[in-house]
Design goal:
The structure is a single chain. It is built from 18 helices and 16 strands. It has about 475 residues and is of the alpha+beta class. It has two domains: about 260 residues, set domain protein methyltransferase, domain 1 (Alpha-Beta Complex), CATH 3.90.1410; about 150 residues, set domain protein methyltransferase, domain 2 (Alpha-Beta Complex), CATH 3.90.1420. Helix 3 crosses helix 4, helix 9 packs parallel to helix 12 and helix 16 runs antiparallel to helix 17. The radius of gyration is 27 Å and the shape is globular. S-adenosylmethionine binds next to helix 11. This is SET domain-containing protein. One of its GO terms (molecular function) is protein-lysine N-methyltransferase activity.
Length: about 475
C-alpha cells in the first residue's frame, strides 16, 4: 500500500511544502529552513541556516507544539477520538501499549487514511499529511539477498537476519490480532485485494527506527521537523533537542556554535553507536567514522558442556559479548562469557525448584549463593581465589571467537561489485568490513597481551602446577594442562 501510495502520489509530497504544513500546524522556525543541502543531496533533507546563527544568544531554532509529537501518550489521545485506531490498539493488547507498537500501528493507520481505496476509516490528524514528506530509507531490511551477502563476516549480517525474523513475527501478530476486526478484514487482509503486506510493515518500521528520538520527559517519539536534522557526532553536533515547560519540543543551537547562512544544523543520533548500528538503524556511516566503535559477537555454550541446557535456561543476558573501542584500547562486556567458562568443580550449581503453581524452575547457584540473574556472576567470580583463572578462560574463549570472525572476513575478502548491487549497500558493506576487521585485529592483539599477562600471574602458575608450594613434595606430581 505505502509503495503504491508513493508511486501514485497520494502518499507523497515534495519537501518544499513542509514549511507551509509546519507553519499551518503551529511549528515556529527561527532562522532556518528545511530542504536538500547542495552537494549532500544523497542525505535527503536537512535543517539549514537562513542567516547567521549564534548559539550563545539564539532563541530555539524550532518549536514544535506538543500535540504534534508522535509519542505513545499522544497516540492514546488520538485514539480517544478515533474509534478505529482505538479498536486496533485494544486488539493488539500489550504490543499496542508499547511505544513501538502504538507508533507503527498509527503510521499504518495514517497511510490507510490517505489511500483512495479505503473509505470512512479513521480520523485525519496533522500527522496524516506529515508522513507524505518522509523519504523511504534504504535500511538493510530493504537490501536484496545479493546485497546482504556482502555483509557476510560482519556483525550486521546476523543482526539483519534476526531483525527480519522479528519483523515477520510482529507482522503476523498484527495480522492475527486485527484480522477479526471487520474493516481490517475487508481492506487489509482480504485474500484477493487486501491492501496491507509485509512490505508496509518494513516501511513503517524503517520510518520509526530511522527517525525516533529520545525526547526528554516524553520518551521515544517521532518529532516532525526536528527529525529532518541529520547526524553529526562530537564537536560537529550543532544542536540539541529538548522540551520546554509546556511539553513542546525544541531544537536549540549549542552554546558556542556559530552557523553561517547555508550551513547545516545537525543533531546527534547517539555518539556511542557503532558502525553496525548506524547502518542498521539509519542506513549510513558518518564520513568521519574511523572505527567500528562497538561490535557484538555472539557465542554459544559448547556442546560438550554437561551444564549446557541449564546454562541456556538460566541465561537472561544476550548470548555473546560486546567489544567497545575506547581511546586506544578495546574493552569487552558480556556476563554470558562468565556463565560459559565456569563449571561444576569451580562452584556453579543448578537446582530444580517447584514454584507455587506447580511449575518447575531451574535456579543457579555460585557456591550456595543464589544467582538471580547472570549479571551477578562476575561479582562472585571477582572475589574468588581463582579469579585470574576464570579471566584466562574468558580471554581464550573470546580469542577463539574473534579469530573465527577475522577468518570469515578474510574468506569474503573484497568482492567485485555485481551489476545489480546498488551503490550505497555496496559502499556501506565494504566500509563496515574494513572497520570491523580493524577492530577485531586490535582486539586480538589486546587479548593476546592479556593472555600473556594472566599466564604469568602467580595464581595461574600455581593452578597449572608450575609453582610448587610444598618443597617436600618434590617433583613427583605431573602437571595437567587440560
Ligand atoms: C532522522 S532522518 C534525517 C532527515 C532525513 N535526511 C530526511 O530527508 O528525512 C535520518 C536519515 O537521514 C540520513 N542521514 C542523517 N545523517 C546523515 C549523515 N551524516 N550522512 C548521511 N546520511 C544521513 C539517513 O538516511 C538517515 O536514515
Amino acid at each position: 500500500m505505502i509503495r503504491r501510495g508513493r508511486a501514485e502520489g497520494w502518499l507523497k509530497e515534495p519537501i518544499e511544502g513542509l514549511t507551509a504544513w509546519a507553519t499551518f500546524h503551529g511549528v515556529v522556525f527561527n532562522g532556518i529552513k528545511i530542504g536538500p543541502l547542495p552537494g549532500y543531496e544523497d542525505r535527503g533533507s536537512a535543517v539549514i541556516a537562513k542567516r547567521n546563527l549564534n548559539g550563545d544568544i539564539e532563541e530555539p531554532l524550532m518549536t514544535i507544539p506538543k500535540e504534534l509529537v508522535l509519542s505513545r501518550q499522544n497516540i492514546e489521545l488520538f485514539a480517544k477520538s478515533d474509534q478505529h485506531l482505538r479498536e486496533l490498539l485494544q486488539a493488539l493488547g500489550d504490543f499496542g501499549r508499547t511505544t513501538r507498537g502504538a507508533v507503527l500501528t498509527f503510521l499504518v493507520m495514517q497511510a490507510s487514511l490517505c489511500c483512495p481505496d479505503i473509505k470512512d476509516i479513521g480520523v485525519h490528524t496533522p500527522l496524516t499529511d506529515y508522513i507524505k514528506y518522509l523519504p523511504d530509507e534504504l535500511l538493510p531490511t530493504f537490501w536484496t539477498e545479493e546485497e546482504h551477502e556482502l555483509l557476510e563476516g560482519t556483525t550486521l549480517r546476523s543482526a539483519t537476519r534476526a531483525k527480519m525474523n522479528s519483523l515477520l513475527r510482529e507482522f503476523e501478530t498484527f495480522r492475527t490480532a486485527t484480522g477479526p476486526i471487520s474493516w481490517c478484514a475487508r481492506y487489509w487482509w482480504d485474500e484477493e485485494d487486501g491492501l496491507l503486506t509485509f512490505d508496509d510493515w518494513l516501511r513503517v518500521d524503517a520510518m520509526y527506527r530511522s527517525r525516533a528520538l529520545e525526547v526528554p520527559g516524553v520518551g521515544d517519539a517521532m518529532v516532525p521537523c526536528i527529525d529532518m536534522a541529520n547526524h553529526a557526532s562530537g564537536h560537529a553536533t550543532a544542536a540539541l533537542y529538548e522540551t520546554d515547560d509546556d511539553g513542546n519540543a525544541l531544537l536549540e543551537l549549542r552554546q558556542g556554535k556559530y552557523i553561517s547562512p547555508g550551513e547545516e544544523i545537525t543533531i546527534t543520533y547517539g555518539d556511542d553507536k557503532g558502525a553496525c548500528e548506524n547502518i542498521f538503524s539509519y542506513g549510513f556511516i558518518e564520513d568521519t567514522m574511523s572505527s567500528a566503535k562497538v561490535m557484538f559477537l555472539n557465542l554459544d555454550v559448547p556442546d560438550d558442556d554437561p551444564l549446557r541446557p541449564a546454562k541456556i535456561y538460566v541465561c537472561n543476558t544476550a548470548p555473546g559479548f560486546r567489544l567497545v573501542h575506547k581511546e586506544d584500547t578495546v574493552e569487552w562486556e558480556g556476563d554470558f562469557v562468565w556463565l560459559v567458562v565456569v563449571n561444576e568443580e569451580d562452584g556453579i550449581d543448578f537446582k530444580v525448584r517447584q514454584t507455587v503453581d506447580g511449575e518447575k524452575e531451574i535456579q543457579a547457584f555460585w557456591k550456595e549463593s543464589e544467582l538471580n540473574d547472570a549479571s551477578k556472576i562476575r561479582a562472585y567470580l571477582e572475589k574468588d581465589p581463582l579469579w585470574e583463572v576464570f579471566q584466562l578462560r574468558a580471554v581464550v574463549l573470546m580469542q577463539g571467537r574473534v579469530h573465527a570472525q577475522i577468518e570469515r572476513l578474510h574468506v569474503v575478502g573484497s568482492p567485485e561489485r555485481e551489476g545489480t548491487v546498488r551503490e550505497r549497500p555496496w559502499h556501506l558493506a565494504a566500509r563496515l568490513r574494513t572497520l570491523e576487521l580493524e577492530l577485531l585485529r586490535k582486539t586480538a592483539e589486546i587479548l593476546d597481551n592479556k593472555r600473556a599477562t594472566l599466564l604469568d600471574s602467580e595464581t595461574i602458575q600455581r593452578y597449572l602446577g608450575l609453582i610448587d608450594d610444598d618443597d617436600d613434595k618434590g617433583d613427583e606430581e605431573e602437571v595437567d594442562f587440560t
